[in-house]
Amino acid sequence: AQSVTQLDSHVSVSEGTPVLLRCNYSSSYSPSLFWYVQHPNKGLQLLLKYTSAATLVKGINGFEAEFKKSETSFHLTKPSAHMSDAAEYFCVVSDSTGFQKLVFGTGTRLLVSP
Amino acid sequence: NAGVTQTPKFQVLKTGQSMTLQCAQDMNHEYMSWYRQDPGMGLRLIHYSVGAGITDQGEVPNGYNVSRSTTEDFPLRLLSAAPSQTSVYFCASSTLQGTISYTFGSGTRLTVV
Q1: Cα-flanking dihedrals φ and ψ of residue B21, to 5°?
Q2: Which of A19, A56, A112, B25 is the most exposed place for a label (fewest CB within 10 A)?
Q3: Which B positions 72-111 lie with beta carbon below 8 A of chain A?
Q4: Does the pLDDT of residue A1 top 70, yes or no?
Q5: If DSSP codes are grouped into helix, strand and coil, which group holds residue A8?
Q6: ∠A40-A72-A66 over CA atoms, to 5°?
Q7: A41, A16, A82: which is closest to B37 by C-alpha?
Q8: For residue range B8-22, what is the model confidence (pLDDT) as tens digits?
Q9: Which of B52, B6, B47, B49 is nearest to B31 (CA)?
């Protein structure tokens, strides 16, 4: 069975400093991995996805993530945080068995202070 | 704009009432699904469908029914609402061909009193 663990429920950074949101996954199959962002009272927006191509994936708004199979990790990073990055971030895994069911992590709330 | 449309955006129900949450997509996606979002629990899959006439249960299906009579629509029915069904509900769709691409609706916030 697939699972996702987001290692931090809250992360606080100052504007202009780097962002690191950690995610570990478990999957019996070749996984597809995603990061979604949810701003307050909004729907989910796809930041980036990994589907077995390049292990370093670049997304929107300056975010990127690196797939590390040996560590079963898919951490999300950004070199310099903006106030507008304050939101909840979800790491998501989807298996390759044909039904493409998404399994969500519990989320990490990113707080950005001036 | 193409996408996933959910209605209503907000709803308050009394315990025991029934209602249907609507979800429609215009991208000709084969796969559609319903999730509920609760604080500290991420999103959990309720039901999903891989095409018209085909549905299956997800992680938390109890208390919910679905049907898929057309490719475009995937309504979620609550037959007898309970306070435990207070949540935010998201519909998502995806193609089953080529690169995986999920599109989410903007959500329905349901309160059962």
Answers
A1: -90, 130
A2: A56
A3: 90, 92, 94, 96, 99-100, 102, 104-107
A4: yes
A5: coil
A6: 60
A7: A41
A8: 999 999 999 999 999
A9: B49
In 3-state terms, what secondary structure has residue B109?
strand
Window from A6-15, A52-61, B66-75, B82-91 with minimum mean pLDDT: A52-61
Nearest chain A Cα distance for residue B14, angstroms: 23
What span, in angstroms and rounded, lies between the C-alpha atoms of B77 and B56?
A: 14
The share of chain A scoring above pLDDT 70, in percent, equals 95
DSSP state of B82: -
Q: Do A108 and A88 form a contact (C-beta atoms < 8 A)?
A: yes
Q: Give residue B30's pLDDT.
A: 92
Minimal-distance CA residue of chain A relative to B56: A99
- The per-residue pLDDT for range A14-50, each reduced to its tens digit, is 999 999 999 999 887 778 899 999 998 788 999 999 8
Nearest residue in A to B35, CA atom: A102
